[in-house]
Amino acid sequence: xxxxxxxxxxxxxxxxxxxxxxxxxxxxxxxxxxxxxxxxxxxxxxxxxxxxxxxxxxxxxxxxxxxxxxxxxxxxxxxxxxxxxxxxxxxxxxxxxxxxxxxxxxxxxxxxxxxxxxxxxxxxxxxxxxxxxxxxxxxxxxxxxxxxxxxxxxxxxxxxxxxxxxxxxxxxxxxxxxxxxxxxxxxxxxxxxxxxxxxxx
Length: 201
Prior knowledge:
Helix content is about 25%, strand content about 50%. The chain is of the alpha+beta class.
């Protein structure tokens, strides 16, 4: 009976351990330069990281990113960007999170392209979503991958003509790459095999 309980607990622990490796973050404010050469952010505040919310009126750090050049479409109607020469960095400057570089990475187009999508037009105001996959290294040396969506607002025609937008909201998720999950699963299966072997002896 005890072995059955242990087997059930291990079966539940494996997927839970895999989910525990997920890190979410949000950012807000700051500006972006949007041209055919790429989307470049400046001054965006890290508002939450791994379940930690920034105190009111403060930030946990900064989020900065840059894409490569425009590949298809246009800045005005939407399109795709290259990951070549891109970057995506999260830096902590609050005692609630690690200080200094938290995540150092870049956009990747190995699976999906970096997309620039027009999501709303209200008079002269235009709102776009920049979405892409990212990969890089955490402050502890762990290699992670994930994705981000950044919502960028151009308040009027003059801002849009100058290619100067504002970051309404950004969010993203970082997870352990698949080989790490498979390794965890393999360890769990070895444990199960050990229990069955002892039972037969």
